[in-house]
Specification:
It is a single chain. By secondary structure, the chain is an alpha/beta fold. The protein has two domains: 43-69 and 81-89 and 164-272, P-loop containing nucleotide triphosphate hydrolases (Rossmann fold, 3-Layer(aba) Sandwich); 96-162, no CATH class. 31% of the residues lie in helices and 24% in strands. The protein is built from seven helices and ten strands. Helix 2 (105-116) packs parallel to helix 4 and helix 3 runs antiparallel to helix 4. The radius of gyration is 19 Å and the shape is globular. The chain binds adenosine-5'-triphosphate and magnesium ion.
Length: 272
């Protein structure tokens, strides 16, 4: 396992360790070099955001962290144990809520328990439904719910089995700006209450600054870590913070970092 990183703020140890992650896809038309030598520790209880140009390998990195596909080179470990297949302590939330249309909300949320062959934890599910404002919707089908409600249900489904790590791939990317703000507040509150370790991919710089302890800025494909940006804004962060000059200056700083990566060879001097 990679040397344990110590967070000066939280003293946190490494929860999810990525070292030398390289992924080369073999396709019928040739190879695609998606990731090159990515190393980062997601610290216990940390909110880590990952941002970078489209196609730079963010989803590839998250899928590898989830044990959903193997790396070509490198290693990913949780608490020091290599991840080679989906892990019970790691849950993934996608851009689409991915609810099964023929099942009602309750039955969708119970699915992970069915797959594990265990009894659903009704008390925990009810508490989570209450937490995200979905009490009374258990018998509704996904088509009867708004996009935001469906995504809230998918968050409940992921948290119901009490994972220690949540991997989120642009979970709010398809939502309107108002609903997205609501979801950002909700996920901030849930993270503060539960202390989960979160790795969160987004295209939105303000979203990353609003949510993160640290932001990993990736280079264009093959994706590498170009820099890591610390967000030392106290929590809870209100949505209105996004209009403050300090916040806007941070957005510009990260935008400059991303723009400097677009279509360029990797510049080692850019590594923070
Ligand atoms: N299963 C696959 N087989 C072959 N190539 C793939 C596969 N999945 C992804 N790729 C390629 O790997 C590269 C990285 O893709 P990935 O989806 O990880 O990027 P991304 O950063 O998540 O992009 P976006 O911001 O658009 O979601 C892309 O060039 C993509 O076409
Ligand atoms: Mg992606």
């Amino acid at each position: 396992m990679q040397a344990t990183a110590t967070d000066s703020k939280t003293g946190g140890r490494s929860k999810l360790s990525v070292s030398g992650a390289t992924k080369i896809y073999q396709t019928k038309t040739g190879t695609v070099h998606a990731l090159e030598d990515v190393s980062v520790d997601v610290r216990e209880g940390e909110f880590l955001c990952i941002i970078g140009p489209s196609g730079c390998g963010k989803t590839t990195l998250l899928w590898s962290m989830a044990g959903l596909h193997p790396l070509t080179r490198g290693r990913i470990a949780i608490d020091g144990d290599p991840i080679t297949k989906p892990h019970p302590q790691i849950a993934m939330i996608f851009q689409d809520a991915n609810l099964l249309p023929w099942r009602n909300l309750e039955k969708n949320i119970e699915l992970p328990f069915e797959l594990k062959g265990t009894k659903p934890d009704r008390e925990r599910i009810d508490r989570l439904l209450d937490r995200v404002g979905l009490v009374g919707f258990g018998n509704k089908h996904p088509r009867e719910l708004s996009g935001g409600m469906q995504q809230r249900a998918s968050i409940v489904r992921s948290l119901a089995v009490d994972p220690s790590v949540l991997l989120m791939d642009e979970p709010f990317g398809a939502l309107d700006a108002f609903t997205r703000d609501e979801m950002n507040l909700l996920i901030q509150e849930i993270w503060m209450e539960t202390g989960k370790t979160i790795a969160f991919v987004t295209h939105s710089i303000p979203e990353a600054i609003f949510l993160a302890d640290r932001i990993v800025v990736m280079s264009a494909r093959p994706g590498r870590i170009a820099s890591i940006y610390e967000v030392d804004i106290p929590r809870p962060r209100p949505v209105s913070i996004q209009t403050e000059p300090d916040f806007i200056a941070r957005v510009m700083e990260i935008k400059t970092r991303i723009d400097s990566q677009r279509g360029q060879e990797f510049d080692h001097s850019a590594v923070a």
